[in-house]
Design a protein that fits this description.
2 domains; eight-stranded mixed sheet; mainly beta
Amino acid sequence: MENIKIDDSARLIGKIRLGKDVYVAQGAVLRSVDDSVTIGNRSWVLENSVLVGTADNPLKVGSKTVFGHKCVALGTEIGDLCEIGNGVIFLPGSRIGNMCIFGEGTIIPPGCVIPDESVVVGRPGRIIRKLTPEDKQMIAKMRGNNLSLSAYDENIVSNEPKEGEKMGKLYEYGDKYPLIDDSAFIYDSAEITGDVVIGSNSIIASGVKIIGNSHGPVKIGCNVQILENSVLHLLPDNELIIEDNVIIGPGCIIHGTTIGA
């Protein structure tokens, strides 16, 4: 694969199409369902970001686009030369033009269309202006003063976790140790600590942290999916209960609450 860099703690799941010089940083997760994720040349996905595509909502990112830390992109299409601030969330069906800037923490709603050269901030995101010459100079500077785009050079990564492969890390806390049903699947970069119970057929995805230390227990029901880079924790004198058939995440923080079936 031509000059692609994937950090050790990053995870690529499913069939993913990457251009040359793509960088996937520590803790980032790219998940493709049915060959649905494509990343253009020289785009970067920085630490703890999560990008997910599905057959109904593929994810396509152009070239020289940079995701900041802890972004989430679900089934969206993003153009070339975009600068995406930390913690930005793109929801399914959104369409983003070329050379756009997104302020930190912006949320782009489902189906939203953002035209080329827009500056977008807010929750939900709103266009506050078009790019200025100074904005374009900043985008160029962040890319070595080279805004040229080369022909797409595809590399395919395919990785489907299989039953029996290395599972996530389980940690004792005091005299408490996680109790995981045999049919649950814990991805290898997930970590679970202390007083935690996980029911049958549940999935704990890459990068998830579940902490049931001195404040446990954390009770997770059956057929629950806790998706990439989510964190579950609780404070003294409360409880954290996730009932059956719940889907959480990716990138959520769940703190001392009960979520019904």
